[in-house]
Amino acid sequence: MNLITSAAASFLVAFPAFISIVNPAGGALIYHQVTASRSHAERTKLAWRVAGFSAAVMLSAFWAGAPVMSFFGISIEALRVAGGLVVAVRAWEMLSEPEENEGRKKEQAAPAALSADVAFFPLTMPFTTGPGTISVAIALSASRPSAAAQLAPFYLGVSVAAILVALSVGFCYALADRIVALLGPARARIMTRLSAFLLLCIGVQIFLTGIRGVFEALPAQS
User: Fold this and answer.
1) Which of 149, 215, 191, 208 has the alpha carbon at shortest distance from 27?
2) pLDDT tens by residue, 114-125
3) Where are the domains of the chain?
4) What is the pTM for the complete model shown?
C-alpha cells in the first residue's frame, strides 16, 4: 500500500508538470494547421507516431537526466536549483506571452507542411517535446528521493505520468479537428495560462527543495 501511495504522490507532481509544458490541446491547434494538406487517416497515424516518440523523449530525459548530470560532478541540489529555475522561467514565458509562445511553436512545426517524414522532427522535437519538456524531465529526475526504498515508486509514478501525457498527445492530435472546433485560439490560450501557472508553482517548489538541500548540507561540510 505504501508503494502505491508513494507512486501516486510522484504521479501527482509529474503529471501536471508534463501536461503543462507539453500542452497537448494547445498543440493540437497548430498540428491541425500544419497537417491540413494530409488526409484524416494520415494525420491520425502521424499523431500516434508523435505520441510514441514523445514518450521516448520524456522517459529518456527523466531516466538518464540525473545520472548523466551526476557523472559530470553536478550535485543533486545544484540540479534541483538549476532545473527549478529553468522550469519556472519557461512557465513565466508561457504565462506572460502566450501569443509569442504560440508563434514560436508554429515556426517549429512549419516544416511539417512540406516534408514527408516529420514524426520525429519537427513534430516531436522541438514542437511537442522540446528543450522545455526535457528540462522538466531532468528537474523531476533531480527531485528523486534519497531513500533507496522510495526510488522504485518514484520512478514508477513519474514514468506512468509521462506515458499518459504521451497518450494524451496522441488523442489530441488525432482528434485535432474536433479540438479546433471546440476550443479555438482564445480558449486554448486561457488553458495555456492556467497550465503555465501550475508549472510555475512546480518549478518554484523544485527550486526551493534544492535550496533547502544546500542549507541542510552546510553543517555536515563545516
Assistant:
1) 191
2) 565 789 988 999
3) 2-221
4) 0.86
